[in-house]
């Protein structure tokens, strides 16, 4: 089988995504990019919160565009993590809406949801009901704390899970208070784990015919990312303090200011040879022979002083040029990239981790797609996120043999549609 | 039956992401053999080190990353060692390796491994991937945070950008490697052929950063670091720190009532979450003052019962006593083998039919060399000769 004829990993797998916002939506987007047919189910009365609501303004850079008509279709957040999916609308508050959902479930391999734990049961589509509708089905449930335990029914979002998972206790400047990450990092972490869990369950199902229920707690997936600090406490009874950008073992290991506004560079030296090189680039060879800095142990001990010296040097240097100099002698250095810098990253474009997508309202943009590079995955042609209800007619026709007249009737009853409710 | 029952994994990877990936596979039932040089892989020295009762040092984090694996130590610098590795590779379903600045553990590139094992799925994990203009550059977690955009949004506005604590970039690469192995196995299950795939830490973080890339293009400005405090992050409570977010109208109302700020609860200006953004600076001191008088657990439970999302900041030592983690059985104590018995973070999620199981702790260097070779069909005399000539240990 050659590269060109290879089928993507999840060709033929159908996923119904009842997810909202980031975590579950990223999980199912990753499945879509692996070749699954992913149908995102939204309700017109409560569309995905990442669409920004029906009063969402058209973003500044799209205001001059003739195609950008509806704020909820051109939200940057929603469009960033729903690539390669189809989108339908269904009102699950109406019995016929639930009936249609059950018919879709009967034709699906995976159902993903991130409601709070009792919602699916209340809708009559908890895991045991799904199993009856479609034996062998896999259900991915993602919630803040999982479906069991004393916090099971407490709601949570990335920013609060970050606190309860221990994550933010470890994030912050030395001696400073705990912080949250800039963008609710628990969500995409949970997204990756959710996708991995579905893959495990699919592998098992293919061998046995048996489905299963995945109960994913964002608290535990995030705690997993703290395994080093947790093991340190387990073995040594030490609570690791907040360390900013510092490393438990090496110095220097920090982010330093450069010339210009909000320009920064990360620099690290993992051994004495690295540090000698660094001193040479800084034209401060005496650093390397200074008793305060000549060994890693002494550098670690006098790290604050060392950081000040390095910062005094870097703050007069342009970040790009300094990065080039340090990399050219094999040192660990990287300028801090913001989102716009990332869009120009040659390595990410080379690997096709960045790709272009063209959206009917938002036009053509660059998006980060997937960290996976398996045969048959199409990195060059990526379909954009669906408009609200864009594929309802297609999906109902294709999977349920629904006629256009039936579809129009459902629209009139408000069970589906492409527009906000009146 | 476990999810990955019967899957044979040869793990040549070193450090954090590759070993995390294979640990995960082992806990879902794969049979994982960890191959190391005779003096152990560098991960055995991940700081901080601890000592056992006999005064021998070990890395607690290494133990975590290598549970469930059999250990084989081999001199891959010798022809005989390479021949052994090629034989083991040919018997594997999956081979996981890593690379650092273009150099591969035991000197074997993914292409060489694939040649020895054409039907296997070969996955390599590195900072930038196996190809591209940056493939041979050195990197680490700090640099990846800087390059992926994540540092630019993390930390306080007037201060240096921050990386995530510990090895979170490596963990992101690790779970991306898990996804790659599992999807590759599904493909192999269907197509019956092997392939090479690489996983880059930078890719993993760029994809989790995806929303900021579209915000930059659509809004015409970059996200950057935001002031700490309400409603973005932790604020001081009476006995620690507390996060309160109020993204929906009724979250705001119920939270303000719980804090005794009834006027704010009823204030019409706060009913629209999107209009509220500019008003926060006005009320933040008031909200923070009220939170400062409350115990974090008490307030967390009150708001939880009211269905308002909030978070008490749990410290690392408190994690082991957290009632939710206890109820979920998160911490596990694998059979320690030759190392001290410790509590480890366990299942990241629960699968109803094929649960996470950790059958054994991390191997000592070469602990299972004989067993691994016997299983692979090596004759006892052959194994003895390899041991005699110091090809294995």
Question: What does this protein structure show overall?
Answer:
The complex is a heterodimer of chains A (422) and B (393). Chain A is an alpha/beta fold. Chain A has two domains: 274 residues, Crotonobetainyl-coa:carnitine coa-transferase, domain 1 (Rossmann fold, 3-Layer(aba) Sandwich), CATH 3.40.50; 86 residues, 2-Layer Sandwich (formyl-coa transferase, domain 3). Chain A contains 19 helices and eleven strands. Chain A has a six-stranded parallel beta sheet with strand order 3-2-1-4-5-6, with helices on both faces. In chain A, strands 7-8-9 form a three-stranded antiparallel beta sheet, covered by helices on one side. In chain A, helix 8 crosses helix 9. The longest helix of chain A is centred in the middle third of the chain and has 23 residues. The model of chain A has no long low-confidence stretch (mean pLDDT 96). Chain B has two domains: 265 residues, Rossmann fold (3-Layer(aba) Sandwich), CATH 3.40.50.10540; 78 residues, formyl-coa transferase, domain 3 (2-Layer Sandwich). Chain B has 18 helices and 14 strands. In chain B, strands 5-2-1-6-7-8 form a six-stranded parallel beta sheet, sandwiched between helices. In chain B, strands 9-10-11 form a three-stranded antiparallel beta sheet, with helices on one face. A two-stranded antiparallel ribbon of chain B has the order 3-4. The radius of gyration of chain B is 25 Å and the shape is elongated. The model of chain B has no long low-confidence stretch (mean pLDDT 96). At the A-B interface, helix 2, helix 6, helix 7, helix 8 and strand 6 of A face helix 2, helix 5, helix 6, helix 7 and strand 8 of B.
